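Appendix B. Raw example, untouched.
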Amino acid sequence: MSTDAVPPTGQRLVSVAEMRALEQAAFARGTTPAALMETAGVGVARVLRRWLGSGPTVNTPSGPPSRRTLADETLLFLIGSGNNGGDGLIVARALAPYARATRVYLVRDRGDDPLVAAAQAAGAVVQPATTDAGRNRLTAWLRAASVVVDAILGIGAVPPLRGPAQEVLAAVRNTRRGTWPRTVAVDVPSGIDSDSGRADPVAFAADTTISTGPAKLGLYLPPAAGLVGRIQNVDLGLSAETLTAVPVSTVLATAPALAAQLPPRPSFSHKGTFGKALVVGGCGQYTGAPGLAARAAGRVGAGLVSLGLAASIQPIVGAALLDATYWPLPEGAPGSLGPPAAAPLLAAAEGYDAVLVGPGLGRAPGVDEFVAAVMRDLAGVREQPQGIVVDADALNALAGTAIWSELAPGRCILTPHPGEMARLVGCSVAAVQAQRIPIAREAAQRWQQIVVLKGAPTVVATPDGLVTVLPFANPALATAGTGDVLAGTIVGLLAQGVPPHAAAWLGVWLHGAAGERVRAQVGVDGAAASDLLPQLPAAIRYLRGF
């Protein structure tokens, strides 16, 4: 069984503790540590040889670009004292007969290690750091290398760095010029925290990280995510029994897995086939937000999209959005929804498959009471709507409402950004950013709701404890209104009968993929939220190709 075969959303990610538990489970079933290390090292060497032997055209400091093969490469392995260093030595042993030159720099002493002797026997030249006064040999080797392989520190190390590891990695930083030499990390780049993604200032910056076994979740969290380059996995050949001995808690969303979650689009259909979505929000100050959300719901395929708005702003929104229907609602403060709108909204909502509450609601007096009444009343509805998305100012309203989680129905999807999440859980924004995955997981389990914690990357936590990481980090999305588009995307999928958990996964993925298309066409400067809308159907078409 492959280590990445984890339905339904994609590839398994592991914490350090989970990886240690998988290793212990393998040992309990007869695998030896030496055999597991050999499998890891040989697997990394196979991936690296394929990469180096594919003849890429690369830029060199002196001369025109050239097409290289493994026989052209001067390899430098930076080896630590632990198991990660052992993996690196096996890689060096496997590649030394084929490379132009293979050099091994022992950052720490490994004693009388047969793995060092085997690398030397295969043709590698070994230099202990303890006999390299002033790091002169290291500097010369770094300047001569075409590929530097990092196998200094494994998953157990955390920043800050100190001692020889810090000195060697600083030398790598100081010697590298642009993208030369090329850099490869074995399992994880040295200097990062494999759980949180924290990184030391001199952490190894890899062009490629070759993960041994399931990828470590910290590789997808900032700032480490900016240091890993392309991530490739080596299957350790762990048995199905070993893999299932440690429950899956975190996965990386992938397009092939998510494609199966898309709703069908039968040819003989009508608008009722694809569901009805109701978007509730807006105020005099924010007339664009509900319109962006409604348009996104339509762009992902909802058959009918309606807006519930304060009566006085309906003409403003309606003039810009002709393909929606409207429920003008009684106002509290001028231009804002308030308690008088709750009862008529509930009556309207019973005819819809999915409801989104929050885009552009504002913070006028009466909004908090309106949101509390709506959530309480929707909790009593037995059949429709099937799902409720709570976004933006509706989240702020809930955060200011005592025992708010008792008001919310058990089929909600909450879509906070870090500031809104901090208010909901009662901590600082910095704490949310530092512990995105555990905070989202704990909140989803405690509230028994789906939590979409927006950011780079966005994570989706479900009440069963599963967290799905959506690997998008795109400055083109860092602009007002993109969150409204995301909320509308999710409610549009809900309206079509996509289960809430899958609607959250799919919605975030489609939103991120649309953002990548915007970045490719417009760039990262000046992209607007409305640029995402025409890209949503294109992202769906791409996903249906899997």
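End of appendix B.
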